[in-house]
Specification:
The structure is a homodimer of 302-residue chains. Chain A contains 15 helices and 5 strands. Chain A is 57% helix and 8% strand. Chain A is an alpha/beta fold. In chain A, strands 2-1-3-4-5 form a 5-stranded parallel sheet, with helices on both faces. The first copy, chain A, folds into 2 domains: 83 residues, Winged helix-like DNA-binding domain superfamily/Winged helix DNA-binding domain (Arc Repressor Mutant, subunit A), CATH 1.10.10; 162 residues, Glucose-6-phosphate isomerase like protein, domain 1 (Rossmann fold, 3-Layer(aba) Sandwich). Chain A is globular and about 65 Å long. At the A-B interface, helix 7, helix 9, helix 10, helix 11 and helix 13 of A face helix 7, helix 9, helix 10, helix 11 and helix 13 of B. Chain A binds a DNA duplex (30 and 30 nucleotides) through helix 3, helix 5 and helix 6. Chains A, B: Keywords: DNA-binding, Transcription, Transcription regulation.
DNA sequence: CCACGGATGAAACTTACTTTCACGGAGGCG
DNA sequence: CGCCTCCGTGAAAGTAAGTTTCATCCGTGG
């Protein structure tokens, strides 16, 4: 558990708002009220005094301080300053009404496209911003040295898991993805020291993924979690925690932005692993590309 | 105090640093020392407490307050916040070397992350920009009215296809995805007028996808292609062509940005379809979300 | 039903910020 | 030449903001 402790130290710059929204579910009700105010209008919050903000959130100053600590700040003044900085950096979204998070009932397709692209792109950028390079590095190292890598994810996260599996496989690393929990658990039971198990769950509450990591950990394997919520249950069973920064809107079950954010992280890990052994990875990619050549139409593409 | 009065009105936003340097000569010696510190490193000044800054400027807190008033602020906290905001606005452009597209051999993970995030986010944004809303609208309409939707994609595009299938399924539309060409062809043969077949291929040269669309078209189904290359072979067999805008870099076989771009398009179509029948889609999402509830850890994510 | 633990706000407390005021030195005037 | 005035200055008092402590409340599980 010690190694994950330092994860919190990352967030030195940027992504504070997203970071807060990520922590939101893990906060107590009163703190959530504060968090919502802050997220809704960071610039405004930065202008307020602690008493003022406490009143606005219908709570006490003490709770506001607790909130500050919960999101990793020393105290209120620091939060204020970080919020001011964050707010200043903010790019004005194309259409405030649309981008507010939700898609209005009467929206036409052009609006929908703008909204989605905005939140998708933001998720990717913000995820990268708050990603802890040190933790990534360790995960890359673990994967590079692993005899075997098991990846698990359900539903939408399953695609991501599967995508990562395919990528690793293509550069010659032994990786598995099992859509079925039972098979995954069986496989996890066969992992050992030096192997890696990775669980992907946006909410971090998917029982199946947690079980798989637990099993893998019990066998001595290194466990990695990829989730949007830094304090969700899955992080309890992970040696390394990688977080995404997606604020899903309505249709959240559609898991749109979160999925892109997860893929971004996967890309980073993939390139990291590939970069560790450029020659071998490059060779593997060329060979695999050749293999599918007969399935392509020759000639123009422009 | 009269001299400073008029200054306060202007400079509501931005240019604070410049403003201060302009006023510098008109300030008293002790205030100038404060001003110089502030101008030299606004971000650092924002971090300091008033006592701290006073000590650093070898003066008293009172002078710092006077300085605040001299430059038109209400008090120290306001100055702090404005400085933080100002400092944050100075965005340093991402490392050109990294962002150029390719990843240099000696790159560390932080660089890799920045590069990937940049190209991924760009792909998403640019794809949305060039996406033809009218074509999307027609595709959405076709899918909404379809008795059945067959989606085909190979390898990386297969994930996207599968993702789309799952999404449509979740909102109650009959959609299929077959990882196997043979099965896909068989299925395509059973399509008819009013049905939709969608082929996803980054290069637009994947034979399998083309064959599936050809088959579907021959049966009277509406065919849709999703590709990065607007004039690639697959577009010849498609009634509607949707394009992505991803410029893949090295490791292109890794299909990173292209995949995100494809997913963005899929998201747009999905939301478009869902928006056509909000009530039904919402209901379906709720029901499906409930269905997996037992597989989640209960309680808040602490 | 009780014991427990977490969440919460009131109040005590500390620190940061602001104001007041007295000192000292520069310049002006008698 | 000396006194008077005014401005800049920091010490110290005063006020407001932020922080800690602790008693209470409420839901949970034994």
């Amino acid at each position: 558990m010690v190694k994950t402790a330092k994860v919190s130290a990352s967030h030195e710059t940027g992504g504070l708002i997203v970071h807060i929204s990520g922590l939101l579910p893990s906060l107590s009700p009163a703190e959530q009220r504060v968090a919502r105010l802050v997220v809704a209008d960071p610039a405004d919050a930065a202008r307020r005094t602690i008493t003022d903000l406490a009143t606005a959130a219908e709570t006490s100053e003490a709770t506001v301080i607790r909130f500050c600590r919960s999101v990793g700040m020393d105290g209120y003044p620091q939060l204020r300053i970080r919020l001011a900085a964050e707010a200043a950096r903010r790019v004005e979204p194309p259409d405030a009404r649309v981008v507010g998070g939700d898609i209005p009932p009467g929206a036409d397709l052009a609006q929908i496209i703008a909204t989605i692209a905005f939140s998708d792109a933001r998720a990717v950028e913000e995820t990268a911003e708050q990603l802890d390079a040190a933790v990534c590095e360790q995960v890359v190292e673990a994967i590079s040295g692993a005899g075997r890598v098991d990846i698990y994810g359900a539903a939408a996260s399953g695609f991501v898991a599967s995508d990562f599996q395919q990528k690793l496989h293509r550069i010659g690393r032994t990786a598995f993805y099992f859509p079925d929990v039972h098979t995954a658990l069986t496989s996890a039971a066969l992992l050992g020291k030096g192997d890696v198990a990775m669980g992907i769950s946006h909410t971090g509450t998917t029982l199946d993924a947690i079980e798989v990591l637990e099993q893998a950990r019990a066998r001595g394997a290194t466990t990695v979690a990829l989730t949007n919520f830094p304090r969700s249950p899955i992080t309890d069973v992970a040696d390394y925690v990688l977080t995404t920064a997606a604020r899903e809107t309505t249709y959240r079950s559609g898991a749109m932005a979160s999925r892109l954010a997860q893929l971004t992280v996967v890309d980073c890990l993939f390139v990291g692993v590939a970069a560790r052994n450029r020659a071998r990875a490059k060779k593997a990619l060329e060979v695999t590309a050749e293999a599918v050549q007969p399935h392509r139409v020759k000639g123009r593409r422009a």
